[in-house]
Amino acid sequence: MTPARPGDAYVQSFARGLSVIRVFNARRSAMTLTEVAEAAGLTRAGARRILLTLVQLGYVSNDGRLFRLTPRILELGFAYLSSMPFWDLAEPVMETLAAEVHQSCSATVLDGTDIVYVLRVPAGRNMSVNLGVGSRLPAYCSAMGRVLLADLDDAALDDALRRSDLAAHTPLTLTDPARLKEVIAQVRRQGWALVDRELETGLVAISAPIRDHGGRTIAALNLSGQAHLITAEQMRERLLPPLLAAAERINGLMRRQ
């Protein structure tokens, strides 16, 4: 797919600054100037100007050789989280739900072809990866992702699947676009999604939508568990009712805002 060309309103220097911020992650928490430039696809001179600007603004620190993000970078993410209408409403409901069913509870939003975690109440460790606010996972093979994709119209769904890297994360992962569209259409009809060991071997998850005043899905509420402790069928029978009830409580609180 050919990327769209930047328009007249595109500020290239700002885009490059964001690209520098994004190269820092758990595997690359501290980098030299050369490493940042290579990871961001910039010249050393360009990377240096951006890094020194970020240092002056307090978003990056430098000990003379290595550059690191500072805690101030969290302002950028929490500005988004604090603007979300269901942030304060959903968290106590999720804590109650997780305590009731003894499973991890999460809320995510859709960003392109990924889901992004915006709230999480863990109950033990269900996944091999360490998930927290800001973590990303592919939408097509996750329960939350399918709930969020189900709210797209057919054209937008086709585009999202076309742009997705439909890799098989486990032997059970659905990767055929036509089959995925059928499954997502079923999610749209029934109002919830169940994914059994498609994202990760041993992980089963069930998800329901969180909707705004107009009925648009703005987030997905999820319960996840370990397949050797709870089967997909047991999750549907035991956990779907309290999950749907919790989602409706959040939706009701949203309607009263």
TrEMBL record:
Pfam families: HTH_IclR, IclR_C. PANTHER family: HELIX-TURN-HELIX TRANSCRIPTIONAL REGULATOR, ICLR FAMILY (PTHR30136), TRANSCRIPTIONAL REGULATOR (PTHR30136:SF34). This is IclR family transcriptional regulator. SMART domains: HTH_ICLR. Keywords: DNA-binding, Transcription, Transcription regulation. SUPFAM superfamilies: GAF domain-like, Winged helix' DNA-binding domain. It comes from the Bacteria. Transmembrane segments: none annotated. InterPro entries: GAF-like_dom_sf (IPR029016), HTH_MetabolicPath_Reg (IPR050707), PcaR_PcaU (IPR012794), Tscrpt_reg_IclR_C (IPR014757), Tscrpt_reg_IclR_N (IPR005471), WH-like_DNA-bd_sf (IPR036388), WH_DNA-bd_sf (IPR036390). Residues 72-256 form the IclR-ED domain. It comes from Pigmentiphaga soli. Residues 11-71 form the HTH iclR-type domain.
